[in-house]
C-alpha cells in the first residue's frame, strides 16, 4: 500500500514540476477521491498547485454534486465546471439521444472544449490499468497529439520511473497517477485513510427500474417511464459512478466500507460491467480513447 | 483465495498492508504460450470476473486459436489490432494477488523488433519469467531475452519450460534444456535460476503440482513466485542515503520543504546531509510523509523534508548522506539501448534525464555494439533501432549518479530528441570516465565582449544553409567584402575549403555529416570568442545539427541565413557538375537527390534567390546584421 502511495505521489509531483499549466480531472467517483487525496498529501502543507476540472453532463447523481461541493470547500482548491454549451442548448441527454451520442457530446467533446479554453498542458486522470484491456497498455504519461488524439503507436516508452514530459505547443499529456492500483487497492486505501466518498457506493434502499437486465436508479424526475413501468425499492449500491441513467446499480447488502471490501474481494464481475457505454462493440473503449475520451 | 467475510476484514486489511509487491516480466513469443500462461495465472488466481469470462468466450469464437477451448491468451492481448494479428506489440501491465503477495506483470513481445518494449518492461521488474517451448529448447530468442534481462539489471530468472504436454512430460527433455540454459547463462550475473516444467494450456505446475510429472519435486510457478526472496528492498535500505529533489514546496515564507522519493538508504531527523552538486552541508529538521511528521523514512518513500539551515537547493539537486556522498561527473561510460527509428550518430546532442536532472548530452564515441542474439562485440559508427552498445558520453553539466548496478534510480537515464521530444534511448551508467571536479576552465581576464569592443563590432556567427549551388558561398563572399570595407574583422569558413583540411578524414554518411558540422561549429565558436564576425557557408542539411551549432552561442549571436533556391534551379546551374554526377549514380548521399535537406523553420534571415541578383540578397543581409 505504502509503495503504491509513494509511486503515485512521485508521479503527481513530477507532472506538476514539469508542466506549464496542470489540472486535475475530478469526476467525484472513488478513483477521483483517492487521486485528490494523494495530491493533497503530495503538496502538504500547501494545497495542490492546480485547479480541479469537472466535466458536468447535467446527468450526474444529485448526491455526487453535493459531495463535489463539500470536497472543494475542504481542499481549498479551485473548481472549474464545464458543460458543453451546444449540447446543453440542444437538450442532449442519454434517454433522448442514446448513450453513445450523449457520451460523445457531453463528455468527450466537452472535455476537449474545456482543455482548449484553458490551455491545460498536463491533465491528471484517475484511470487504472486493471479496468479494461486496452488500458493495460496505457502509459502513466499518455501523450496526446494536437486535437487530443491518442495514437497508440506514438506513445513513448516508459523506463524505470523516468517520465519524458516534454511536449510541443498544442500537444498535451494525460497523467495517470493511480495506473498501478486495482479496484481492491482503492477500497482498502479509502478505508485506511478515511477518505470521504459519495454515499451511493454503500448499499441502501433506493428506487430502481430494471432495464435490459440492469438496475437503473430513478435519481430525478427526468426518468422516462414506459407504459405501466414503475420504480421498485431495492437494496442496491454502485461500484462506479457516472451519469445516472448510464450507471447500473447492483443488489447488495454492503452498507459499510468493510462490507464493500469483502464484496469486492468476492466479486464475480468486473466493475465496468455497470458501465453501459463499454459493451456496444468489441474494442469500444479503445475507439473512444482514440477520439479523446479519458 | 477463499471467501472473505466482513467480520474478518480487520485482519484481512492488516495482512494486506504488509503484503509485498513483486514485479516480474514475462519473456517469450506468442508461440511459446506466453499470453496463455499469464491468462492462466489470472484465471487460476480468480482475477478474471464473470463478465470478462463471457467476453472471453465470445472473443475465443471470433479470434481464438484453440478450437473449442477457451483461448486464455485473449485475456491479455489488449489492443484490438494485436488481437486481430495474433501478436503482442506493446507492454501490457497485469495485476493479480495471492494470499502472500501482490503481482504486477509486464507482458512484452518477444520478437527482435520489440527489444525496446522488453527493455521497458524489464526496467521495473525484480524477476523475469523466461519461457521456452519444450519442443524447441534454448533458441536464439531465449538468449536474446536473457541478455536483455541481464542488461536491465534483473538478477532472478524463472525458466518456464512450457508445453510439456507436447513432449509427453518427458523428464530427459526437461533436464537437457535446463542444462543447456545453465551453461549459456553462466556468463550473466544472475543470482538465482529456477527451472520449472509446465503446461500453461492445461495448468500443470502453474498453481498445483502436476500428476503427469511426478518426477518433478520442485515448486510450482505460483509457489516459487510467492516465496522467492528478491532481497532488493533490504539492499536498497542498507545503502547510503540519496534523495533527488523533485519539487521545492514553498507555500509561504515560513515553510521550505524539499520533496522527493528516497532512492536509497534511510533518513531520520537530525541526520547530517549534503546538497549535491554544490556540496553544502546541513541537517534534516523534519520529515513529512503526507500529512504527518515521521521519525523515520526509507528507500522507496515519497517524503518532504525540511532542513536546519537556509541552503540553496532546487529540482535536480540530490540530498545525500554527508559522510558517504556519490560521485559527480560529466563524462561516463554507459550501456545504451537505441529506441528510435532514426539512428543515433555520435556528436549529436540529446536531452538526458537521470532521476530529476535534465542536461544536454552527447555520445562522444561508440566503443562497440553488442549483437543482442549472440553477445558478439561489433564495430559501429551509428546505432540503429533496438541496437545495444557500450558508449562514452559527455554532459553539459555535472550529474550526481551511482553506477546502474548499484542503484537503478541513480544510474538509469533516458535520452530525448531535442526537436521532436521523443524518447530515443535508454542508458545505464557503468562508471565515470573522470571526475567533473578535475575539470577547471582556465579563468580568463579578457573576454569576448572586450575583444569585440576593440574591433568596434559585435561578435557574430552568420550561418548560411542551403542546397549545393544555392548561392551560399557567392553571397557569403560578397558579404565578407562589404563587411571588410566597413572596417569589420571577419572570417569565412567555407564547406569545401574546410573539407580539404580540418575535415579531410570525413565522408558524406550521416554520421560524418554530423561530425563535420560539429567541428565547424566549434571552430566558429572559438572565432566568435576572439571577437570576430564569422561567416559559415555549409549545406548543413539537418535541423538537429544546426540546432546544435546554435546552442553553442549566446542569445542573438547566431544568425541563421536560409539561402532558399529551388532544387531544380540549383540543378540547372550545377556549377560543379555534382548534380549530374549524383543523378547518374556516381555520387552517393548527395543532398537533395538521395539525402534529405531539412529546411529551417525559423531562420533569422530567409533569402529567396530565385530571379534575384546575389547583390540584392547581400544587401538584405547586411541590413539585417546591423
Oligomer: heterodimer
Shape by Cα distribution of chain A: globular
**Percentage of residues in helical conformation of chain B:** 25-40%
CATH-derived topology of the largest domain in chain A? Rossmann fold
- Please state the average pLDDT score of chain B: 87
- N-to-C order of helices and strands of chain A: HEHEHEHHHEEEHEEEEHH
Going across the biggest sheet of chain A, name each strand in turn: 3-2-1-4-6-5
Using the coordinates above, name the CATH class of the largest domain in chain B: Alpha Beta
Secondary-structure class of chain B: alpha/beta
- Averaged pLDDT of chain A, please? 89
Please identify the structural class of chain A as seen in this structure. Answer: alpha/beta
At CATH level 3, the topology of the largest domain in chain B is Rossmann fold
Number of strands of chain B: 28
Radius of gyration of chain B from CA coordinates? 30 Å
How many structural domains does the protein architecture of chain A include? 2
Sheet of most strands of chain A: 6 strands, mixed
Distance between the termini of chain B: 79 Å
